[in-house]
Amino acid sequence: MELYRDEALLAVHKPAGLLVHRSPIDKHETEFALQYARSLNGGQHVYPLHRLDRPTSGVLVFARDPEVARTLGLNMMAGEVEKQYLAVVRGWPAASGVIDYPLRDEPEDRRRKHEEQAVRDALTHYRTLATTTLDVAIEKYPTSRYALVELEPKTGRKHQLRRHMKHVSHPIIGDANHGRGRHNRYFAERFGEGRLMLAATRIKLPHPETGEALVISAPLEESFRRVLSIFPDLSALEGPTT
């Protein structure tokens, strides 16, 4: 789904489960968001400005020429690009907070995971938008608590949001690597499919030609919205789906 287009930029909605580009980990895959964006660009090359993990849905921005890609790459390094995500997590986090927790690099090639990797600063801001309690006993308690949170990564480490939420004991629902299996299975069984409950909903960046702030938003997929039915009142999130 195309979200935005001008002479410099092209933004699309990446569905959950789609790779951004070819990966040595998933050599058998043949469909990528990069291919889709290239087809929208008349078959011409496009340059991804950032990445989304395969199970994450949401807004993905491409430059339409290499000079724009370089300019926005510098903007990102300078902290001038803002990203927002929504996530459903286990438990009730504080109303707001900052997660300042360095992360060790995760190599693309799993065969190198035992090699010594660099540790880099990682910073995430979060805000709790809604909470709920379900009358289901998934672990040792008779009820189970969940929250909808807004996440703003201030750095761009691999799997940063998923790893940071695990670090504060509020793992994202559907996260097979950093989450809790019992909760993931409950949501998969209740809603008929399992997915990572993480969506990139908004990006704000200086336009490479005018310097003015450009905000691009993405609607939530229907699979994400179905899970939000566990929260009694989310009228602020009403809008189109993909």
TrEMBL record:
Domain of life: Bacteria
Keyword field: Isomerase, tRNA processing
Limits of the Pseudouridine synthase RsuA/RluA-like domain: 9-167
EC number: 5.4.99.26
Annotated protein name in UniProt: tRNA pseudouridine synthase C
Top EC category: isomerase
Stored InterPro entries: PsdUridine_synth_cat_dom_sf, PsdUridine_synth_RluA-like_CS, PsdUridine_synth_RsuA/RluA, RluA_PseudoU_synthase
Keyword Protease: no
Function recorded in the entry: Responsible for synthesis of pseudouridine from uracil-65 in transfer RNAs.
UniProt key word Zinc: no
Reactions that this protein is recorded to catalyse: uridine(65) in tRNA = pseudouridine(65) in tRNA
PROSITE patterns: PSI_RLU
Organism: Marinobacter suaedae
